[in-house]
Amino acid sequence: MSYFLDKLIILPGILLAISIHEFSHGYVAVKLGDDTPRIQGRMTLNPIKHIDPLGFICLLLVGFGWAKPVMIDSRNFKNPRRDDFLVSIAGPISNFIMAIIFVIIMKLVYMFLPVTDMTQVVWSVLAGTVSINLVLMVFNLLPIPPLDGHHILGSIGGPPVWNFYHRYREQLRFAILILIIFNFIGKIIGPIVIFLNNFLFSIFF
Questions:
Q1: Whole-number Cα distances in Å, 20 to 93, 148, 149
Q2: Catalytic residue numbers?
Q3: Do the beta carbons of residue 30 and residue 50 sit within 8 Å?
Q4: What angle, rounded to 10 degrees, do the helices at 117-140 and 2-31 form?
Q5: pLDDT score of 139
Q6: pLDDT tens track of the chain, all 205 residues?
Q7: What is the number of alpha carbons within 13 Å of residue 195 lying toward its C-beta?
Q8: Residues near 84 by beta carbon (within 8 Å), at least 6 away in sequence
Q9: In 10 A of CB 183, how many CB atoms?
Q10: What is the DSSP letter of 78?
Q11: CB within 8 Å of 19: residues ≥ 6 apart
């Protein structure tokens, strides 16, 4: 029973984190001249528009996953290399901002609400939202397709990096699934997520 309760507690955080993440990609792309996300209906905070079934299940069950990528057409950008970088980094940055906001909300709950069973549930939901946003941020910064990190690294490294990704794309996508299934991803990003979580709480508490 506690297993399902734990999953229910982190569900709001998952839905919010993926919605903010993908909306941010789309918003920045549109602002930089590519209207593809708007045409495809991705300029919304409705999580249904952003959920990738496999990525969502991975997030819910093992704590690491992804949303349906926002499609962009870099030919519409004035500076494709720079603008692709900005669009790619927007998602992880938005998750970090959300983590900060929800730590502040937790501080307000701690300061102004009495300790009851209900506030403890609210606290758990808020803490889960902070954690999921940090997980989604750090996970997506890994430089492996289809994650944002590979777009970021490709934008910085240029054609040699893109050629590498194009050549080994399917192998890398398979590798990340194996890493998730056997929880190697947790060992890679877990210490970073814990550090960031402790850092934020050390600032506000």
A1: 10, 14, 17
A2: 22
A3: no
A4: 50
A5: 92
A6: 577 888 888 999 999 999 999 999 999 999 999 999 999 999 999 999 999 988 888 888 877 777 898 999 999 999 999 999 999 999 999 999 999 999 999 999 999 989 898 999 999 999 999 999 999 999 999 999 989 999 999 999 999 999 999 999 899 988 888 887 788 888 999 999 999 999 999 999 9
A7: 6
A8: 72, 74, 77, 151, 154, 155
A9: 13
A10: S
A11: 44, 45, 46, 47, 50
Which residue is listed with tokens 């794309």?
169
Tokens 């300790």 belong to 115
CA gap 120, 73 in Å, rounded? 45
Q: Where are the domains of the chain?
A: 2-69+76-204
**Cα distances (Å, whole numbers) of residue 97 to 33, 52, 101:** 24, 23, 6
What span, in angstroms and rounded, lies between the C-alpha atoms of 161 and 151? 10
Give me the torsion for CA of 16, 19, 22, 24, rounded to 10°. Answer: -70
AA letter at 63:
G
For 101-123, letters b (16+ CB in 10 Å) and e give ebbebbeeeeeeeeeeeeeeeeb
| Residues with Cβ within 8 Å of residue 140, at least 6 apart in sequence | 21, 66, 91, 92, 95, 147, 148, 149
Query: pTM for the full model?
Result: 0.93
